[in-house]
Amino acid sequence: MPSVDNKRLPRHVRVLVAGGGPVGLAAAVELRRRGVDCLVVEPRATVSRARPRCKTLNVRTMEHLRRWGLAERLRGRAPLPASWSQDVVFCTSLTGRELSRFTGVLGLAPEGDRFPETGQQAPQYVLEEVLREAVEELAPGRLVLGSKVVAVRQDDDLVTVTVEDGAGVRSVVTADYVIGCDGPRSVVRDEIGARYVGGEALRPNFGMVFRSPGLGEHVAHGPAVQYWVVNATAPALAGPLDRADTWWAIAFGVDRATGEREARRIIDAVAGRPVEAEVLSTDPWTARMQIVDRMRHGRVFLAGDAAHLNPPFGGHGLNTGIGDAVDLGWKLAAVLAGWGGPDVLDSYERERRPVQERVIREATANMRVLSTELLADDLDADDEAGVRARRAAGARIQETKKAEFHSLELVLGLRIAASPILTAEPEGREVSPWIGARLPHLFLEDGRSLYDLLGDGLTLLALGRDAPVTAVEEAADLRGVPLSVVRLPEPVAAGHAELLGARLVLVRPDQVVAWLGDEAPEDPLALVDTLSGNAHRDERAALRTS
């Protein structure tokens, strides 16, 4: 993939993204699709396939990829199709006893109208490669590889960024805004004086990728996306990276030195028999449960791992970062296009922090019971004691691990409880549970997804032939706010109106319900001002003229 050297860097861009991992690239795709000139600065010249890191792309991330036109491209590159397996197995080893299993996990199985895209198992490097391609297609020459951001300074009007290439040569780029997606060691975070708050786990973990020819043929439990191995020799989590011979594994409670010394022993214990294996890479890590004390300083924002870290159990970390990128991307684009007011950017942290904190709590809860906590005597025994031990282990697994693998309420059901760019119900009326929630999805009779009909700006859904849309259309036109009107056909319109309790629904660019009602709003201009972040337009105008 072509890259840009520092001598060819632009002097100024609208948005500079520090860090070209999945979150930074997602932010760039969101921005470029909305016409925003942005520059991505990434230290790694190539995407490393040695450490797959995240392997779960959840339903919500796949919905974003669909909107970007990239979902099918990614699925075509994924080594394991979603149809290959939707199971998680708990066992004493890959060739040993099965203790329990979960089916239809991680949103990998379709559920009717609930979502237009299933989740997808794919190594992080596959997502990065697809997003790098997309950024280069959308904005040739705006992906700077082999360079890093080393300093960030800002005033009221601009951010000045110092970029250093691999040879130590420094250049300066100015930007209207900067997004720090530069990970746990974020320079941008340090430059704005933000810091992580929280803790980290005491127990080390040892990750590795290995090649073992023919191992899959010996697995006693059939295909699964994860195998939780419960034995005293190597309590671990493992799974296939492809349908050939490449596997990943995490040995719980194993430090770097022990893991590197005993990697082959761990692999044999996971397999349940001596196997031929070659260790391709290792990745020691310790879980962290941390979030920054602030995600914005002036014109500089933080997203992804630069802003929050959580244990990987449940597969929420990268997906939460993609959510950050989408949220911030459309909001910056709205402000730079002139229709988004100050409240739009103020809403970023107010909306995302509760989501990030909830994810940290859920992932931490998932970490409380790992293979190490499930160890018990007689799990492999052939006698009655073994039957009882496996029955007890299976019951505990179902009780303690179900939420980890069936978490669509977390992935799809989180509601923004408070935001300056969402409407509140009039005094005395109960707040609708749909305001601040993801618009419920449906497929039309011709097979199209409702989400495919939504516009890039606000969308007014008219659920019925006589649902009045003119007042909102005129208000949006007067304020210069992009608005698409979508009239759903019957009978789906009536069904959705009954579900939402309204015939008119205003939807944000991120598919979040911002307002709903049966009739035209009493003050459509005030409504459009609120949703576009300009609720205090008149007050600011008065201050400027005073």
How would you sum up this structure, described in words?
The protein has 546 residues and is of the alpha+beta class. Helices cover 33% and strands 23% of the residues. The protein has 15 helices and 24 strands. α1 runs parallel beside α4, α1 (22-33) packs parallel to α8 and α8 (317-337) packs antiparallel against α9. It starts with 11 loop residues before the first strand and ends with a helix. The model has no long low-confidence stretch (mean pLDDT 94).
Q: So how many helices?
A: 15
Q: Kindly, what is the distance between the CA atoms of the first and last residues, rounded to a whole number of angstroms? A: 54 Å
User: Which percent bin holds the helix content?
Assistant: 25-40%
Overall, the morphology is: globular
* Rg estimate, integer Å: 25 Å
Task: List the uncertain runs.
Answer: none
How many strands in all? 24
What percentage of amino acids are in beta strands?
15-25%
pLDDT averaged over residues: 94
The oligomeric status of these chains comes to single chain
Structural class, judged by helices and strands? Answer: alpha+beta
- Major beta sheet summary: 8 strands, mixed
